[in-house]
Amino acid sequence: MINNTLIQELIHEIVNEEEGVPVVECLMRGSITDEEISEKTHLKLNTVRRILYKLYDAGIASYKRSKDPETQWYTYTWKFESGKVEEIIKKRNREIMENLRELLAFEENNMFFACKNGHYRYTFDEAVENDFKCPECHGKLEYMDNSEIIQQIRKELSLYENNGSEIPLNFKSYS
Ligand SMILES: [Zn+2]
Fold this sequence. Notes:
- The structure is a single chain.
- By secondary structure, the protein is of the alpha+beta class.
- The protein has 2 domains: 5-80, Orthogonal Bundle (Arc Repressor Mutant, subunit A); 85-172, no CATH class.
- The protein has 7 helices and 6 strands, in the order H-H-E-H-H-E-E-H-E-E-H-E-H.
- It has helices at residues 5-15, 20-28, 34-41, 45-57, 82-108, 124-129, 147-172, and strands at 32-33, 61-67, 74-80, 112-115, 121-123, 141-144.
- The strands form 2 sheets. Strands 1-3-2 form a 3-stranded antiparallel beta sheet. It has a 3-stranded antiparallel beta sheet with strand order 5-4-6.
- The longest helix has 27 residues, at 82-108.
- The protein is elongated.
- The site of zinc ion has 7 residues, from loops.
């Protein structure tokens, strides 16, 4: 089973069909031909090949072609590129963390004012420009405490920061 959520999400995103998970599970156990995957998963060979191609396209699966000396047919042996998966997940995590840090800085470096009627939230400068009146309903803009938002962003950020070092470790048990 793929018990790593981030890997599951990534596969779901790349393959975007339910059958992706059993195919990847087969690949994670070791090099395997498309026909063997089809037998093990009871999926049609076409389905398996379509999924393999998507994984190949994303760089997380590779294949080796070999010719059967008896039948002269080509066999494709597929391999899971765990290093690439790790790389993609790390890169994605870095991007998410960067965004969260920017968001955090914006929240920390600004004072916010909001309309009592639940309209948009304004920074101090924007509130000054509008004379502390809501442009939509002309209600008074009041200071809004954003410490809860800051806490939420920090919490999310720390989840990513902690995950970042754990993912490869969990993941290596499969490869
Ligand atoms: Zn308003």
